[in-house]
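Fig. S4 source data, part A: sequence.
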Amino acid sequence: MSSYVRKLLPRWGMAEQVSAMMPWDMPLAEAWQRRGEMRELTLRLCREAMARVDVNVVLPFCAVFVPFMVDPHAIEDEIGIPVINGVAVGLRTAEMFVDLNMVHSKKAYPPAPSALWE
Protein backbone atom coordinates (compact mmCIF):
# COMPACT_ATOMS: atom_id res chain seq x y z
CA MET A 1 0.00 0.00 0.00
CA SER A 2 2.69 2.51 0.87
CA SER A 3 4.23 2.29 -2.63
CA TYR A 4 0.81 3.16 -4.10
CA VAL A 5 0.44 6.09 -1.70
CA ARG A 6 3.97 7.26 -2.48
CA LYS A 7 2.96 7.45 -6.16
CA LEU A 8 -0.18 9.43 -5.33
CA LEU A 9 1.42 12.01 -3.01
CA PRO A 10 3.41 13.82 -5.74
CA ARG A 11 0.34 13.90 -7.99
CA TRP A 12 -1.57 15.60 -5.17
CA GLY A 13 1.31 18.00 -4.43
CA MET A 14 1.71 16.47 -0.98
CA ALA A 15 5.04 14.61 -1.25
CA GLU A 16 6.92 17.25 0.74
CA GLN A 17 4.17 17.55 3.36
CA VAL A 18 4.08 13.94 4.55
CA SER A 19 6.76 13.21 7.12
CA ALA A 20 5.79 9.64 8.05
CA MET A 21 3.59 6.80 6.86
CA MET A 22 2.76 4.02 9.26
CA PRO A 23 0.90 0.99 7.87
CA TRP A 24 -1.66 -0.89 9.91
CA ASP A 25 -0.47 -4.12 8.18
CA MET A 26 -3.83 -5.77 8.71
CA PRO A 27 -6.10 -6.98 5.91
CA LEU A 28 -9.50 -5.33 5.95
CA ALA A 29 -11.42 -8.59 6.44
CA GLU A 30 -9.22 -9.46 9.40
CA ALA A 31 -9.52 -5.95 10.81
CA TRP A 32 -13.30 -6.25 11.07
CA GLN A 33 -12.86 -9.37 13.15
CA ARG A 34 -10.18 -7.70 15.30
CA ARG A 35 -11.69 -4.23 15.51
CA GLY A 36 -11.29 -4.25 19.28
CA GLU A 37 -7.52 -4.14 18.74
CA MET A 38 -7.65 -1.37 16.14
CA ARG A 39 -7.79 1.52 18.62
CA GLU A 40 -4.65 0.40 20.46
CA LEU A 41 -2.85 -0.38 17.20
CA THR A 42 -3.76 3.05 15.81
CA LEU A 43 -2.56 4.76 18.99
CA ARG A 44 0.72 2.83 18.89
CA LEU A 45 1.35 3.75 15.24
CA CYS A 46 0.59 7.42 15.88
CA ARG A 47 2.91 7.52 18.86
CA GLU A 48 5.69 5.77 16.93
CA ALA A 49 5.41 8.31 14.11
CA MET A 50 5.38 11.19 16.61
CA ALA A 51 8.52 9.83 18.28
CA ARG A 52 10.39 9.62 14.95
CA VAL A 53 9.45 12.91 13.29
CA ASP A 54 7.62 16.17 13.94
CA VAL A 55 3.98 15.20 13.32
CA ASN A 56 1.39 18.00 13.23
CA VAL A 57 -1.67 16.09 12.06
CA VAL A 58 -2.72 12.49 11.43
CA LEU A 59 -4.36 11.80 8.09
CA PRO A 60 -5.54 8.18 8.05
CA PHE A 61 -5.51 6.74 4.54
CA CYS A 62 -8.10 4.04 5.26
CA ALA A 63 -11.61 5.43 5.66
CA VAL A 64 -12.85 2.10 7.01
CA PHE A 65 -10.37 1.99 9.89
CA VAL A 66 -10.89 5.66 10.82
CA PRO A 67 -13.69 6.69 11.47
CA PHE A 68 -15.71 3.45 11.28
CA MET A 69 -13.56 1.23 13.50
CA VAL A 70 -11.63 3.86 15.43
CA ASP A 71 -13.09 7.19 16.54
CA PRO A 72 -10.75 9.96 15.35
CA HIS A 73 -11.76 12.17 18.30
CA ALA A 74 -10.71 9.48 20.78
CA ILE A 75 -7.31 9.17 19.09
CA GLU A 76 -6.98 12.97 18.98
CA ASP A 77 -7.71 13.19 22.71
CA GLU A 78 -5.03 10.60 23.44
CA ILE A 79 -2.21 11.94 21.24
CA GLY A 80 -2.91 15.66 21.42
CA ILE A 81 -2.85 16.50 17.70
CA PRO A 82 -5.65 16.63 15.11
CA VAL A 83 -6.79 13.39 13.46
CA ILE A 84 -8.61 14.03 10.20
CA ASN A 85 -11.91 12.24 9.60
CA GLY A 86 -11.65 11.77 5.84
CA VAL A 87 -15.25 10.64 5.49
CA ALA A 88 -16.55 13.79 7.20
CA VAL A 89 -14.26 15.97 5.08
CA GLY A 90 -15.57 14.37 1.89
CA LEU A 91 -19.21 14.73 2.92
CA ARG A 92 -18.78 18.34 4.04
CA THR A 93 -17.01 19.18 0.78
CA ALA A 94 -19.90 17.70 -1.22
CA GLU A 95 -22.39 19.63 0.95
CA MET A 96 -20.44 22.83 0.35
CA PHE A 97 -20.57 22.33 -3.43
CA VAL A 98 -24.33 21.80 -3.25
CA ASP A 99 -24.88 24.80 -0.95
CA LEU A 100 -22.85 27.03 -3.28
CA ASN A 101 -24.60 25.66 -6.40
CA MET A 102 -21.24 24.55 -7.75
CA VAL A 103 -20.97 21.92 -10.47
CA HIS A 104 -18.10 20.06 -12.04
CA SER A 105 -16.43 21.33 -15.21
CA LYS A 106 -18.35 20.23 -18.30
CA LYS A 107 -15.12 20.70 -20.26
CA ALA A 108 -13.10 18.39 -18.00
CA TYR A 109 -15.98 15.95 -17.42
CA PRO A 110 -18.38 16.09 -20.37
CA PRO A 111 -21.81 14.48 -20.00
CA ALA A 112 -22.04 10.82 -20.95
CA PRO A 113 -23.58 10.12 -24.37
CA SER A 114 -27.35 9.70 -24.08
CA ALA A 115 -27.05 6.31 -25.81
CA LEU A 116 -25.27 5.08 -22.71
CA TRP A 117 -28.44 5.54 -20.67
CA GLU A 118 -30.84 3.87 -23.14
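Fig. S4 source data, part B ends here. Residues 21-103 form one domain.
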